[in-house]
Amino acid sequence: MLNKQDRELYREDKKERKELGKDAIETAKAIKEDLIENAKENIHEAREEFREFKSDVKEAVREDNKSEKEFLKETE
């Protein structure tokens, strides 16, 4: 059987573990929010890069078509 001092130490230890658990949960939530925010930023940047890539491809196709038309005119 636990004496009074042991019970008090047990209660204090239990409180400390509970506080540490709360701190760990808060830390995990903050990390999760940061990761979500970073992912959103990365998605936005990737979309921008893809739009630029599509634009570059369209321009290259236009130039290629223009060159092909000029070549066909010259060979007629």
Task: Write a structural description.
With 76 residues, the protein is mainly α. Helices cover 95% and strands 0% of the residues. The protein has one helix and no strands. The radius of gyration is 33 Å and the shape is rod-shaped. The termini are far apart. The mean pLDDT is 92.
List keywords for this structure.
mainly alpha; 76 residues; 0% strand; 1 helix; coiled coil
Basic shape: rod-shaped
Give the assembly state of these chains: single chain
Class from secondary-structure proportions: mainly alpha
* Strand tally: 0
Order of helices and strands: H
Describe the secondary-structure layout.
Blueprint: H1 4-75
Keywords: Coiled coil
Coiled coil: 22-63
Summarize the structure.
Keywords: Coiled coil. With 76 residues, the chain is mainly α.
